[in-house]
Amino acid sequence: MTALLLALGASLTWGVADFVGPWLGRTWGTLRIMLWGQCSGLLFVTVVVAIHGGGPRSGAIGWAVLAALSATIGLVGYYQGIATGTISVVAPIAGASAIVPVIYGIARGDDPSVGQLVGIGAAIVGVAFASMEQQDGKRAAAAGVGLAVLAAVGFGFYFPPMHAAGAADPWWGALLFRFASVGFVSVAVAARRPTLRLPRRVVWIVALVGVGDTLGNILFAAAAGRGLVSLTSVMASLYPVITVGLAAVFLHERISRMQQGGVVLTLVGIGLIST
Questions:
Q1: Over the range 81-98, which residues count as b (16 or more CB within 10 Å of their CB) and which as e?
Q2: Per-residue confidence (pLDDT) for residue 124, from 0 to 100
Q3: Which of 14, 96, 144, 174 could bridge to 216 as Cys pair (CB 3.0-4.6 Å)?
Q4: How far is CA 39 from CA 31, 35, 45, in A?
Q5: What does the pLDDT read at residue 274?
Q6: Total domain count for the chain?
């Protein structure tokens, strides 16, 4: 139960951060917001680990580097997908990342329930419906869908290696993850050279986004030492429920009925996977 509550806490913090961050990214640019957020998250987790004290207990925290690479690819896809599409569509598709750790768990011998298998099917069908929109009387892929699928893959393959790092040492696993993710984003920034200046008020908001995202990583890493990867990962994947809810309240996004049905079916599928 403790593991699932920690994973649920991760999904709550990620849900808020994954709404505010990409929303700001629409105005100020993906890499600019990501870099400031990642750096603030690194500062936060460094302070937390310093207070906690002690060195890493196991070299297995090295898995966090692989998790950081996958998650950074997913996050770029997620931010860019929301920059070109609607949050209400992109977030649930990205949340279908829950399928990856379940399949990983099955490969390692986990026995999924009938509900989880139904959930996987529902999520796949839901993603297909949410991905389509009417354009000139014809059905076509909605804006940002390809990037949302990239986000789902990146986020999905974050869970197994981060679970291994967190099970070895949640504090240092989270620190190494954030340090590596800052490095990967910095490489992208150096290659693209975007403007990095932000108004002070925006910097503070982005800093909170980075802290929230990092807190989610810490909570998931802590859950990893107390539960199966297939269970903790899918529970942490419930964050799109929060993100979609915030988009409905603050942005009043409009999508077609078919897409609405797809979003609902995807969220139901994610919920079934987590049971």
A1: bbbebbbbbbbbbbbbbb
A2: 77
A3: 14
A4: 12, 6, 10
A5: 65
A6: 1
